Amino acid sequence: MPETTTTYELYYWPFIQGRGEFVRLVLEDAGLDYVDVARLPESRGGGLQAVLALMNGPLPNGPRPFAPPYVRHGNLVLAQTALVCRYVAEHAGLAPEGALDRLRADQLMLTIADGVAETHDIHHPISASLYYDDQRDAAKRRAEVFTHERLARFLGYFEAVLEDNARGRGEVAIADRTSYVDLALFQLMAGLEYALPKAFARVTAATPRLRALAAVVAERPRVAAYLASERRIPFNAQGIFRYYPELDEP
Amino acid sequence: MPETTTTYELYYWPFIQGRGEFVRLVLEDAGLDYVDVARLPESRGGGLQAVLALMNGPLPNGPRPFAPPYVRHGNLVLAQTALVCRYVAEHAGLAPEGALDRLRADQLMLTIADGVAETHDIHHPISASLYYDDQRDAAKRRAEVFTHERLARFLGYFEAVLEDNARGRGEVAIADRTSYVDLALFQLMAGLEYALPKAFARVTAATPRLRALAAVVAERPRVAAYLASERRIPFNAQGIFRYYPELDEP
After folding, report:
1. Min CA distance, A139 vs chain B (Å)?
2. Does residue B95 surpass a pLDDT of 70?
3. Where are the alpha helices (DSSP H) in A39-179?
4. CA-to-CA distance for A2 and A70, rounded, in angstroms?
5. Which of B117, B126, B142 sits opposite A141 (nearest CB)?
6. From A80's CA, which of A61, A73, A108, A141 has a CA 20 to 30 Å away?
7. Which of residues 143-172 of A touch B (CB under 8 A)?
8. Is B185 at the interface with chain A, CB within 8 A?
């Protein structure tokens, strides 16, 4: 395995939170030394070209990434958001301790990733390669089902998971200590609140544990420092979580 | 960890291949003793109710599944297709040997899962809870982009991965022996060929390694026996891969 003291290089689009934000939160909360490569100037090997370069050619030791975010750490180049979060977290004390609990954390993280993908497709139901304005009608239809059915299905599920776990183990997603899954739940909640404020307020009225968990994560010292810093890119209309008023409970 | 001799119980919809098929292929190729629970009669604890029961109540040791497929193995109930495949494969000699190669396999498997999700949404771009006929126009638009852009992007990616790996390691996805990733690539190819025969023929004319790999997997003795058995549910119009002629290169 690579040395845990090796610097992590994160490769992701430099102008959005997007899926990269789930990785950034793990790196930040762990207090790890990392470089957000694309946010460096091109003269120092940064910019978009740095993200694209490793995707467009063979790598010496394994498969190239299909899409960002990905990290480079020692000899490893690793893509897929949930997997990258798990990898960093397991090296940084932000994963559960036992092998079975690590699998359970991975299950939850992948379910969060599914929720993120469904949320993205609200505004791009036809294709990510077309403009929003060219798929606005389909987007409204998708948003209607998402805000009235799927949102409560996802958040209700995570609420039940927290409730079940609190019964015997702790006030976190898995076992009894904060993991990358809790960080991801915070980010999911933050994104949904930004993108769908009306639907979010209605649905989360019934998910007090999830709201409490998100608040606790936001107050973790390194997370709070990160959120207040310039490293936290504001939500905007290019990311996964976008605020289009016509999609919020149409 | 659970004993590897414990019987695996697979929970998935009994009338489609769907995402469960990726798990079935690992279980079958490994020659493992498993029960496809929902295909048992209700009098023996099978049927749809068996799938729903574990999703709708708390579990003693960890989070409930959000959706099938999931497996029960000893004390573990584990959901998320890619994760379940990895778990079974790592117990059954169908995963790469080294820790880094296991991460790389996971990365590819999650990318396959992304491709499967995009393929599903061709026919259900608005919502899985609406009928196809109620989202046919959006489906045609999505299929147009998928068949003319995304299909070649995904399959071209996996072709490049095979080419890169063949240069130094082997004629498989990762390292030098068959893994669950190769089984999944076979299933992805089989499903795409069924659902989008015209687009598939055109795009795979440029992916000879992927075609060769799929053919090799189909001839593995246990896979071939499975595919010829009644356990292999035929593709149909309820699964992920559906043949609607109007969606094949509209």
Report:
1. 8
2. yes
3. 48-53, 81-92, 99-123, 136-145, 151-168
4. 16
5. B126
6. A141
7. 145-146, 149-150, 154, 157, 160-161, 163-165, 167
8. no
